[in-house]
Amino acid sequence: MSDPLEVNEKSETSPASPAEPQIIESDPGKAFSESSLDRTLREQYAATRQIGHPERKLDVAWKDLWVRGVGASAIYGQTMGSLFNPLEQAKDKHRAAALQARVDAAAAVDPSTNAPALGKGERFLLRGFSGVLKSGEMALIVGRPGSGCTTFLKTLANFRDSFAGIDGEVLYGNMGAKEAKKYPGQIVFNAEDEVHYPVLTVHETINFALKMKTPAPRARPEGVSAEAYQAESERNLLKTFGIEHTRDTLVGDEYVRGVSGGERKRVSLTEILVNRAPVVLWDSPSRGLDASTAVEFTRSIRTITDVLGVTTFMSLYQAGNQIYELFDKVMVIAAGYCIYWGPLQDARPYFESLGFECPPGQNVSDYLTGVTVSTERKIFEAVRADPARMRDLPLSPQEFLAVYEKSDVARRMKQELDDHLAAEEARAKQTAEFKEGVRLEKARGVWRNDPSTVDIWTQVKAATVRQYQLLWNDKTSLVIKQGSSIVQSVILGSLFYNLQYTTADMFTRSGTIFFILLFNSLLSMTEVTASFSGRSILAKHKSFALFHPSSMVFAQVLADLPILMVQVSVLMLPIYFMTNLRRSGAAFFTLWIITYVTTLSITAFFRMIGFSFSTFDGASGVSGISVGLLITYAGYLIPPPSMKPWLAWTRWLNPLYYGFEAAMTNEFHNVDFSCVQLVPSGGSYTTEGGNFACAVQGAQPGEAFVSGDAYLAVSMDFHHSHLWRNLGINIVFWIAFVCLTALAVERLKPAGSQKSYLLFSRQAARNADDADPADAEHGAITVLKKAVTSTSAAERRDAEKMKAQLQQADTIFTWQGVNYTVPVKGGERQLLNDVQGYARPGQLLALMGASGAGKSTLLDTLSLRKDVGVVEGRIMIDGRPPGASFQRTTAYVAQMDVHDPNQTVREALVFSALLRQPRDVSTEEKLAYVDTVLDMLDLHEIADALIGIPGAGLGVEQRKRVTIGVELVSKPVLLFLDEPTSGLDGQSSFKIIQFLRKLADAGQCIICTIHQPSALLFYQFDQLLLLAKGGNTVYMGPLGHQGRTMVDYFEKNGIQCPKDANPAEFMIDVVSGPLAKHRDWADVWRNSPEHTAITAQVQQMADEAASKPPSYHEDGREFATTTSTQLKLVIARASRSVWRSPDYNMARIMMIIGSALMNGLSFLQIDNSITSLHNRLFSVFNGMWIAPGLLAQLQPHFIHNRRVFEAREKLSKMYGWFPFVVGEVVSEAPWIVLTSALFYVLWYFPVFPVGISTNAYHAGLMFIMILIYQLFTLAFGQAIAAVSGNENQAALINPLFLGIFASFSGVLVPYDQIISFWRYWLYYLDPWSYLLGGQVVFSMRDIPVVCATTEFATFSPPANQTCGDYMAPFLKVVGGYLNNPNATAGCQYCEYSIGNQYLDSVNLGGKADGPRDIGVSALYMIACFVILFIAMWARSRPKKNVMKSS
Question: How far apart are CA 254 and CA 198, in angstroms?
Answer without folding.
Answer: 9
